[in-house]
Every structure is written in structure tokens, then in C-alpha cells.
Specification:
Length: 324
Amino acid sequence: MPVLRLYLDEAADLKPDYRLSRASLQHLIGMLRSHQDHGWGDYLEVLVFVFWLASATSYHVVSRSFNIPRTTVHDMVHRVAKKLLKLKNRVIHFPTHADLENVGNGFAQLAGSPAFSRVVGSIDGCQVRVKPPSADAQCYLNHKLFYSVQLQAVCDHQGMFLDIFTGYPGSVHDTRVLKNSPLYTQQLYPPEGFCILGEGGHPCLSAAIALITPYKEAVRLVVARRFNHHHAKARSIIKRSFGIMKTRWRSIFFKSLEVKPTFAPEVIACCTILHNIRVSNGDIMEPAEEVFRPDDNADAPAWGADQGAYGSGCLCSGWSGGSS
């Protein structure tokens, strides 16, 4: 079992095979252990799961790598995924009221403008390739012409995920995903007096949540061009977070997940949980290539005069004569 021997060799670099540093992997094992766990069983389960996630190979290939039955690999992967998902609210959560000022200052620094100090999140969507069910394959075909499941995420100024929502088929528009997510329907975030930044494919909102998008007709207004410039700088942190996650789990995000569509959202959620664990442990793996998706504004609601006024009232008035 070469991959298991690799873990036992304390001098070995685990990232090429497990995509996590030894410290992050050991931290994960510790988080998933319970008082009922003992011996090597719980260690082996986590190693099998992370290796499967890192390589995105079939259960059969993993079973040969660890010299255990294929059915055992399947059971281990699903068991660890369920354990990891139970940690979701502990690992992925909104900042406390006391932390909001720090988050806002972080976004102001990213934007290069103090007017963005009321921004406490950046939201975007990500398409994850899947093998679609034969009966509903067309629903999973996205605008880029591949089958996918969607991940909507909000992150803070450090790239930590604050909220995730996954499972909608790839053909569904970003706005519909947003408006069916608990973030929107339950008005979970941001708190009153704060806002989050979205791309052009999202609507600009003042209710049920405060979501600010870039101006679409910015070329004729200097202040709007400046706003869009600072907005893009601040919002890019979510793109960077997706880029880091895609680099770490390349096999998951750059080839179709060979699992049932019902399990795919759980695997995606596990990747976001592991992303936050990595960030909190300083296990940095810079994106090999930043993935910036152009704003798809073709069928997005136009930013009307009332929405523009809200956006400028929230942010622009503080820096209309500021630096660009």
C-alpha cells in the first residue's frame, strides 16, 4: 500500500497524492474522530476518502491502491462524507457581529476604497461537471454546453466560505439559484446596514438581501466606471477562492464526477469544507491559473435608475471623487 506507507513516512510530502499538507490532514482526522473511534480504522477511512477526492479515480482504482475491497472503499467514502458534512456549520459560518467591522475593512482594502467598508461578502456561482441522469440530462446542460451541478458560495475578504448552496442543475440561471437559496429566502446574510457584492448575472437588490452588482452602462459616467473598477477588485476574492479550490481538487472540478447526481452535491460541499479547513491552517495552494468568468449579462435584469441609486447610495457616495 504505497499511499498508506507515504502517510506513515513523517518526512514525506503528502500534497502530490492527498492534496493536503500533513498538518491539515492530521487536523481533519482529529476533527472527524469520535470517542468511539480507535485504532487505525478511522485514520484509514479518512486517508481513503481524501485520496479518492484528490485523484477522482474509480472506487476500483482506490481499492487497489489501498489493497481493500471495492465495496469497502465505497462505504468508507460515503461514511466520511457524511461525517464531514456534519462539520459544515462549524467550519462554514457567517462572521459574528464583532467580526463584521474587520471583514468590512478587509473588503475596503481589497477594493482600494474605504467606501467598501460596509461590504461583508462576495457571491458567485461555479459549475461542477457531473455525469447526468439519463432521464433528465438536458436539465444539467449549462450555457457552456457541458453537464454540471451548480455551487453558489459567499466568501469573506480572506477567501473563507461563509455560505454555500449546491445541487441545482447547470441549466438554471444564477438569479433563480440565488432566489431559491436559504441565503435569500431566509434573509440570512448580510445583516442590516451591510451588503455583499455580486456579478452582472445577479440582480442588484435592496431586499430581501442587500446585493450590489456593477453598473452595466458605466462607459458614460466617470463615477460609475470608478465604482466598477473598485467593485471588481473587491469581488475577485470569490473567483480566487474558486480558483484555489479547483487547483487543489483538479480531478473533481475538471472532469465529470463519476457518482450519482444525488451524491455529487455532497462531494462538492465536502470540498468547500476542506477549503476552509485548509485556509484556517495556513495550507496555501495558490491557483495554478486564476479562473475569472466574464459576467454573463445577456439575460440578467437591467440595473434601473432605482437600483443604481441604491447602489450608489450604499457605496458610491463615499468615494465619487476617490482614486481609480
